[in-house]
Write a structure and sequence with these properties.
This protein has about 130 residues and is an alpha/beta fold. It is about 40% helix and about 20% strand. It is built from five helices and five strands. Strands 2-1-3-4-5 form a five-stranded parallel sheet, sandwiched between helices. The two termini are about 25 Å apart. About 25% of the residues are buried.
C-alpha cells in the first residue's frame, strides 16, 4: 500500500515564490496548500491539518512572529512543526524565531534540495523517527 502524501502548508506573500514552491513540492510528492494572507493561516491550517508549515516572516496584515505565537497558543495547531523561509537572516530574527518554537530556519534565496531535506527531517522528528 502506498504511503500517504505528507501535507505542507505554505504562507508567503510573494506569489512567484509561493507558486514555484508549491509546484516543486507537489512534484516531490507532497500535498500542498498555500496562502498569501497571514490572517487566513489559522483557519486554513486547522482545516488542512498539515504535517509541517513553511512560513515567511514578512507578510502584510500580520507578521510571521505573530503567526508563530498564534499557532503555538492554539491547541489545534500548536504541535505542527514550523520552518521559517524568509529573507530576514539576521541573528536577532533567527533567535526570536527559535524562541517562538520553530524547528528550522531557511534564508532566501534557498537551495530547494536542502529545503526538502529539512522538511523530511522535520516530519521524521515530529513522527518520532529521528
Amino acid at each position: 500500500m502506498a504511503e500517504e502524501k505528507k501535507k505542507i502548508f505554505i504562507a508567503d506573500d510573494d506569489e512567484i515564490i509561493l507558486n514555484s514552491l508549491k509546484k516543486l513540492l507537489t512534484l516531490s510528492n507532497f500535498e500542498v496548500e498555500t496562502t498569501q494572507d497571514a490572517k487566513k493561516i489559522g483557519p486554513m491550517v486547522k482545516n488542512f491539518k498539515p504535517n509541517i508549515i513553511l512560513l515567511d516572516l514578512l507578510m502584510p496584515n500580520m507578521g510571521g512572529f505573530e503567526v508563530c505565537e498564534m499557532l503555538n497558543n492554539d491547541n489545534e495547531t500548536k504541535g505542527i512543526p514550523i520552518i521559517v523561509v524568509s529573507a530576514l537572516g539576521g541573528y536577532t530574527d533567527i533567535k526570536k524565531a527559535y524562541q517562538l518554537g520553530v524547528i528550522g530556519y531557511v534564508t532566501k534565496p534557498y537551495d530547494f534540495s536542502k529545503l526538502v531535506e529539512k522538511i523530511h527531517k522535520a516530519i521524521l522528528y515530529k513522527e518520532g523517527r529521528t
